[in-house]
Design brief:
Length: 243
């Protein structure tokens, strides 16, 4: 894309100065070499809530690492067009890290876990059901909306990917290092990150893992996060903070 010609690689330094901006999301099909379109909820927020008008500067991410500075050209009934002025490239340091999270009984605690992970940089989620999962039903669209909102709020530019798996055996077969958190082990969590490896961090549901589920994984892959019992969402946020 021609917009890459104006790319700024020092994304972190620029983002420090953009800490007060409002960030919008537009998918790749709405982005050309020179123009970005905003439609749907993003358009409504920009025009109805933020009162943006023709000539104003707005910032848009494409969800694949770019933050794009634009100037609004036209505003119509259900969409706006904006001219691309400059692009900022950001780095996905968690590209090879997968957070495997059980469905939690309390929707607000589940929402909290997703939000905080995204704010701290996680971009890959696997939501799974275990034998002791209490929560019923699946709402991937809601989870994706939560992740999208957290991405924009924290000025991140990688749209999180969320995948649903029915059991732990599917995760155990994934290609990468598995790290399982279980309260009843003595081995304390230690982590050395290698950029060329994939890591799967696996968290238990409210009732913990069963013995049969833990047999899917090597004993050396099981760690404790704390001397005290943590709620599932607390363990999730603590782990990503440590990483």
């Amino acid at each position: 894309m021609q917009l890459m010609n104006n790319l700024k690689d020092n994304g972190f330094l620029i983002l420090v100065h953009l800490s007060n901006i409002e960030l919008y999301y537009s998918s790749e099909e709405n982005i050309s070499d020179e123009i970005i379109l905003l439609a749907g909820d993003e358009f409504k927020h920009a025009v109805k809530v933020m009162r943006s008008k023709i000539g104003d500067t707005i910032y848009v991410t494409n969800g694949t690492g770019l933050i794009i500075k634009t100037e609004i050209l036209t505003i119509k009934k259900d969409k706006l067009s904006a001219k691309i002025i400059e692009t900022i490239k950001t780095e996905n340091k968690f590209e090879n890290i997968f957070f495997c999270i059980p469905k939690l009984k309390n929707p607000e605690r589940f929402k909290f876990a997703i939000e905080k992970c995204v704010e701290l940089g996680v971009t890959n989620f696997i939501i799974f059901e275990s034998k002791r999962t209490i929560a019923k039903g699946t709402n991937i669209k809601r989870w994706e909306k939560i992740a999208l909102a957290a991405m924009k709020q924290s000025l991140r530019a990688f749209l999180p990917k969320i995948k649903l798996l029915r059991n732990l055996s599917e995760i155990s077969e994934s290609n990468g290092e598995k790290i399982i958190f279980e309260q009843n082990v003595k081995r304390k969590f230690q982590f050395e990150f290698k950029m060329d490896k994939s890591y799967y961090f696996i968290f238990g549901p409210e009732g913990g893992f069963t013995e049969d589920e833990l047999k899917f994984f090597d004993a050396d892959s099981i760690y404790s996060l704390s001397d005290h019992r943590l709620r599932s969402e607390t363990a999730i946020v603590k782990a990503v903070s440590l990483i």
